[in-house]
Amino acid sequence: MEIESGVLPAVRNMKDFDKALETSQATIVLLETRLSQLKNLVHYAKRANKRVFIHADLIQGLKSDEYGMEYLIREVKPDGLLSTRGNVISLAKKHHLIAIQRLFLLDSKALDNNLKLVERLQPDCVEVLPGLIPSIIEEVFQSTNIPIIAGGLIKNDMQVKAALDAGAVAVSTSKTELWN
Questions:
Q1: Calpha distance 3→99 (Å, rounded)
Q2: Which of 55, 104, 127, 135 is buried most, with the most CB atoms less than 10 Å from its CB?
Q3: How many CB atoms lie within 10 A of CB 33?
């Protein structure tokens, strides 16, 4: 299963969830929601022929341990998981979901540590935050040869284009005006 190119709608609230279902994008990312809503959100998204990636670290009421991930994988049934946590990435891969390792690149030490983590875990895709630094997008891709999603602080079409031109396969954003 591949990551589609372009903008991936990243949903933070119910109003935006409805907008995401109306986009032409085949995939949506669920960022912040309550565990009690998650199964229904995934069900509605799949009824709208959308693939769903869930940011496991941001689901309120979900513990990112083996049992929490077991519930997510068996009961909620997303197509992919995003996380900063290695155990979540490993479990996603084990259960044949798309595994997206989220990297916060605050400085060169964080970059080095995260590249080692990616090398060890071998996720299907890497999300780089902030996604505003084209040279870092290029460096991470050259170091890992894993598709890159640029995310965080992207506010306009020029920034989307710069990230895609730098080699990102997609851009995730909660800015609804960028979704189409």
A1: 11
A2: 127
A3: 22
pLDDT in tens, 60-104: 999 989 999 999 999 999 999 999 999 999 999 999 999 999 999
Contact 134, 155 (CB under 8 A): no
User: What's the per-residue H, E or C state across 88-147?
Assistant: HHHHHHHCCCEEEEEEECCCHHHHHHHHHHHHHHCCCEEEEECCCCHHHHHHHHHHHCCC
DSSP state of 74: I
Two tokens at 140?
């991470």
Which pTM value belongs to this model? 0.94
